[in-house]
Amino acid sequence: MEVASRNSAAASAPRQRFFRWPGSVLVMKELQCSPILCAVTQAAGYGGIARVSRMLLDVLQVISGNTCQVVKLCSGIPGPVSTTMKVRFASVLALRQLRGKVSWVVFDHLALARIQPLVPAVFRRPYAVFLHDIEAWGRMGPLQKAALKGARVRIANSQYTANKVTSAHPDVGAVHVCHLALPRVEPAAGHLNTALLDSIYSSAVLIVGRMGSTERYKGHDQVLAAWPEVKRRVLAAQLIVVGDGDDVPRLKHVAAATGVGSSILFTGRVDEHTLHAIYDRAALFVMPSSREGFGLVYLEAMHHRLPCIGSTEDAASEVIVQGQTGLLVSQSDVSGLADAIVKLLQNTALRRQMGEAGFCRLEEIFSFSRFQARLIQLLQPLCGPPG
After folding, report:
1. Does residue 85 surpass a pLDDT of 70?
2. Domain containing 43 — which CATH number?
3. Residue 385 backbone zone (phi > 0: left; psi -120 to 50: alpha; other: beta)
4. C-beta separation of 64 from 6 below 8 A
């Protein structure tokens, strides 16, 4: 467990804080303490939740004048979370509220907010929770439900997630949508895995994501099931599977059983620099997930001007425009998935057209500036109204 604070000396002195509001200037009330962002982890390479947390921090630093504190459950890449780590995290957050060291709180994951109902109401600071996935719409214990209901602001990463939450828990109150974005800063140049890149062909189909035995909803099995038909119709086709997880051995066995396993390459986890180069070499991106709360990987693919294939079952339709920036198919329609992959592999002009349209949509709808403006708007009830 790690605790960090920026400009802590400045945070202890009363001041007025100013920051740019879209079309105006927001003047914050005089505060003697700064907000806190509660994070699972912000470790590089850990995936979507960590990346979203780092983006949340960027915005909170704008709001707070660089005085936002960060309390992390895990200081590095999370493994098993021990009771000691949980107790330390809860103790730090509770004590800071009891001592008046925090004005408001943002949780980057609902599970972290379970401490809030246990803080005496007179000391409990108002808070927001960012909702990502099934943790917010599945079965939950009484403390997690109380934390969801007690939040001043509930923010979902997509309308799909918001709808799932309100359908499962209609009594929790309003859930607002703040679509995600890509971070503003590209990863620094590093060592490229040139041997891996040299093994990727121009007709490569790319899927990126963690492969865990408890999260088989991303569509790896369906892509592998469709692959023999793709390979029959496009002889040069190659499938690139990026990511790791405890389900990789099983998926490799499934790939070998297709009879076209030599055209399927499992890369394991790769560094950010190499991943960007893989995107640049691929022909298209596919991830027919059945339960994606948003899908940052779609934005990554769009950044690299790749057309995307997603599913009709989840939030992919909020990112991918059917027939314009990619194609949407039902995850259960393996034949339709094969047709979609083949259609794009066989039509270079269509791929380029969709890739350019996707890049423009990314810049227009999913830019960091739009994410920042929307988040600031949603956090008004915590940090004060514009005026």
Report:
1. yes
2. 3.40.50.2000
3. beta
4. no
